[in-house]
Amino acid sequence: MRRMFLATVAIALMLPLAPAANADTPDDTLVMAAQIDDIITLDPAEIFEFSGAEYAAQVYDRLVTYDVNDVSDIQPMIAESWEVSDDGKSFTFTIRDGITFHSGNPLTAQDVAYSLRRVIKLNLTPAFILAQFGLTAENVDEMITAPDDSTVILRTDQAYAPTFVLYCLTSGVGAVVDSQLVQEHEVDGDMGHEWLTTHSAGSGPFMLQQWSPSEALSYTAYEDYWRGEPGLDRVFVRHVAEAATQRLMLEQGDIDVARDLLADQVQALEDAEGIAIDVVPLGAIWYLGLNVKREPFQHVEVRQALKYLVDYATLESTILAGQFKVHQSFLPEGFLGAIEDTPFSLNVERAQELLAEAGYPDGFDITMDVRNSSPTTDMAQAIQSTFAQAGVNVEIIPGDGGQTLTRYRARNHDIYIGKWGPDYQDPHTNASTFAYNVDNSDDAAAKPLAWRNAWDIPEFSQRVEAAVLERDAATRAEMYEDIQRDHQEVSPFVIMFQEIAQIARSEDVQGLIWGPSFDSNYYWQATKN
Known about the structure:
By secondary structure, this protein is of the alpha+beta class. The protein has helices spanning 2-14, 50-59, 109-122, 128-131, 140-143, 162-169, 179-184, 193-196, 243-252, 263-269, 300-307, 312-317, 348-357, 376-388, 401-409, 428-434, 449-452, 458-469, 473-490; strands at residues 29-34, 64-67, 70-76, 79-84, 90-95, 144-148, 151-155, 206-212, 216-221, 234-239, 257-258, 275-290, 324-326, 364-371, 392-399, 415-420, 493-506, 509-510, 527-528.
């Protein structure tokens, strides 16, 4: 019956909107409209996209977590406690009793160790989060052990700040999979990867019902969840690219939550009866990535020029009003070492001078890969207009989230416009992607954002490595401040904004948790009046 019901909901929500439709959502179901076309996989060892990270937070539990209202408060999750050795290189976790996977299998320390080792052995995109502790496919079985069903020991190659290690384990790679179920679906030594791309094996509050790429994602409640039964039986998320359509669906009662409304649409709903607006500060940074493989971007002067060709203030006050604030450094506000310096503003004359110094007095032609959704398209068109004032003619290449990300990850872009969210709440998360690239070869093992933009930076990389080993917080903060100020001047990143989420929902829905990152958004405590 439950499967039949969800199929009916899915079919109904995928039909074109009827102009006079007015169908309230079911009392036991949360129905959400969001842009989820960036989902490429459902395997937590590979997930590295915003919507995928949010999916994993509903289906999987992690070793540790943090208070979404105070990210400095690292809290137990699957691990009920932990200890750090005197030398700072060994973390011993005590695993909570009584947790069961959706399959009914008990969750033990062996599952935790298997899950962490699996991330390293598969070596997919987010594996670097754990690999940075000196973990390799060759040594991980010795570095991560489970001496009994209740104990996991993680050893690191150096003595890092303990919070840095713990924050990494709060990220998606800290998700624990049902090792017995996954191994049952292993094919040719893939550790169940192909199967987990479209299936789930978690212990979280919701079970995956179905994923239709670029269309919909549905969940059913896991009634035996160890923290308590979810407040609603089902969650259905429909991919709706257009913000105007999301607004219409919310006003008509076809959905409970609209995730991607533009500033003017939010403003229009602020006084609407029965609708509430949640304002949530986020850690997401919006930026342009300039591929240094392209000749113009090999010149620092060109990279600087483009930073003077974005009308940050006008964008912030018009199409992005209330949802973005100007921010021009890679650490979001609230992070250790974050700076508020904004050295760039629209200055066409200065940009033209820099372009001339680089040998481009008349500008040049270039392309920009743009996700065909709001507000990305709106931002790209505005940037295209101001770039043209200095002769930089941009051809916008639209695509869905998966298409643009695939090109970007293969370094096949000229300019990429997108956002980056921290993988964990430590400054190294962004420093190690925006200012770190130890191997610029096409087949590099680690592929951070600096690599994606072919920026070869041994000196910056050394500074980032030094900062993550600094155990004194004040000294460490100063190191990140200095790195960011130098980064602003020379990097192939036009960092523009920090995001503020404005989420519109029916007032009937209560208890949704919106955190500073997509993987700290939780549905399980939501209820309907």
